[in-house]
Design a protein that fits this description.
The structure is a single chain. The protein has 393 residues and is of the alpha/beta class. Helices cover 35% and strands 16% of the residues. The chain contains 15 helices and 13 strands. It has an 8-stranded mixed β-sheet with strand order 8-7-6-9-10-11-12-13, with helices on both faces. Strands 1-5-4-2-3 form a 5-stranded parallel β-sheet. Strand 9, helix 13 (250-263) and strand 10 form a beta-alpha-beta unit. It binds zinc ion. Zinc ion binds next to helix 14. Zinc ion binds at residues 288-289, 291-292, 360, 363, 365-366.
């Protein structure tokens, strides 16, 4: 039976080891993966910038999910260079072809005055709360931290905003802005599941804040009990990563589109009518915008707003949930969003279909020859952006 020393010598003999100075150079010139295999309490005290953290104990089970490309250039470290030598050997045995262990580990790296940071990490309570996210390698702890640091704005705390807000809060989106100027009415409760019978007559934003805070105390709910208009939209949306649009009228959608283009904040759009719903993502100047898709609103008699048309209560639950999914994918950079595609759902046929939506080169809002965007109120016709703000102001 080999002794520990013999095993370590064998592992070191089978792998490449790099001095910290050499590792630093390799990190500066190429896209190497830095892998920290220490225990969570060691990692939390300080780590190399951008390090991927997989404790030695779970390396075999999780490394293939976290570093799928076995040809990746990986620099492994631990505290002193022993665990990382074994880790590098294990990875080689798993088929990784370009792994090296950093000699002297984090301790020597730090003693030599090289850059390190204190990584953000989840509390024990958060690890438990978001466990099912952490089990997804595509999310993991870094993705969860991203969500906790993200800011999403919901336009409306109604049918679409309700399910979106609930799922975003449950997922741990750190800041959720909610703008709505209505009060809770009993006719809302058939679909607006943020609210309940006890809240009748209460401002919707206050009711939303209560529900979301009870669901997840990690979430900071910022409320705006105002009408979204040209006078406040830029101020309201400032600093948000994503806008989840649950508004039900054309003038507001065109206004949101202009503000989104100006600030380059992506919009997750959703709309519902009777038994049909639609969702898409507008990524400013990358994909199509709302006006590329709908250059002009239909005449009012063909486009009744939600307050006038009936809707089956589950429908906004489905579309609003899709909006929440897209918002999270945008923040995490996951998969393919609905950018450039319109998802259309028919509840009666129980079918989903997607339609391609292209950027319009002649779009008066985002096209190359579009006039500079002026944020102004739209009339019922939502004509291309007005040349001057209302009242000449
Ligand atoms: Zn456009």
């Amino acid at each position: 039976m080999p002794t520990f020393r013999e095993m370590l010598a064998a592992a070191k003999g089978a792998i490449r080891e790099v001095e910290p100075a050499e590792a630093e150079q390799e990190l500066a010139v190429e896209s190497a993966v830095v892998l920290d295999v220490r225990e969570p309490d060691e990692y939390e005290q300080g780590a190399l910038p951008g390090a991927l953290h997989i404790p030695r104990g779970t390396l075999e089970t999780s490394v293939e999910g976290r570093i799928p490309d076995k040809g990746s250039h990986v620099l492994v470290y631990c505290a002193g260079g022993t665990r990382s030598a074994f880790a590098a050997k294990t990875m080689q045995d798993l088929g990784y072809t370009d792994v090296a262990s950093i000699v002297g580990g984090f301790n020597r790296w730090k003693d030599e005055g090289r850059a390190w940071t204190t990584p953000k990490s989840l509390s024990a309570e958060q690890r438990n709360r978001y466990q099912r996210h952490l089990l997804l390698p595509e999310v993991g702890e870094s993705g969860q931290i991203k969500l906790l640091e993200s800011r999403m704005l919901l336009l409306g705390a109604g049918g679409l905003g309700s399910p979106a807000a609930l799922y975003l809060a449950a997922a741990g989106v750190g800041t959720i802005g909610v703008i709505d100027m209505d009060v809770v009415d009993s006719s809302n409760l058939q679909r607006q599941i943020l609210h309940n019978t006890d809240r009748l007559g209460e401002r919707k934003v206050d009711s939303a804040k209560k529900t979301l805070t009870l669901l997840n105390p990690d979430v900071d709910v910022v409320t705006y009990d105002v009408r979204l208009g040209a006078d406040n939209i830029l101020e309201v949306i400032d600093g948000y990563d994503v806008i989840v649009d649950g508004t039900d009228n054309f003038p507001t959608r065109y206004l949101v589109n202009d503000a989104s283009l100006l600030t380059r904040i992506p919009v997750v759009h959703g709309s519902i009518f009777r038994f049909e719903g639609q969702a898409t993502v507008f990524n400013p100047y990358v994909g199509p915008c709302y006006r590329c898709m709908i250059p002009e609103p239909p005449p009012p008699e063909l486009a009744p707003s939600c307050s006038e048309a009936g809707v089956l209560g589950v429908l906004p639950g489905i579309i609003g949930s899709i909006q929440a999914m897209e918002a999270i994918k945008i923040v995490l950079g996951l998969g393919e969003t609905l950018e450039g595609r319109l998802l259309s759902y028919d509840a009666l046929d129980e079918t989903f279909r997607t339609f391609k939506v292209n950027r319009d080169p002649n779009c008066p809002a985002c096209g190359p020859n579009a006039a500079p965007i002026v944020i102004a109120e739209y009339d019922e016709l939502c004509m291309p952006h007005p040349v001057a703000p209302p009242n000449g102001g």
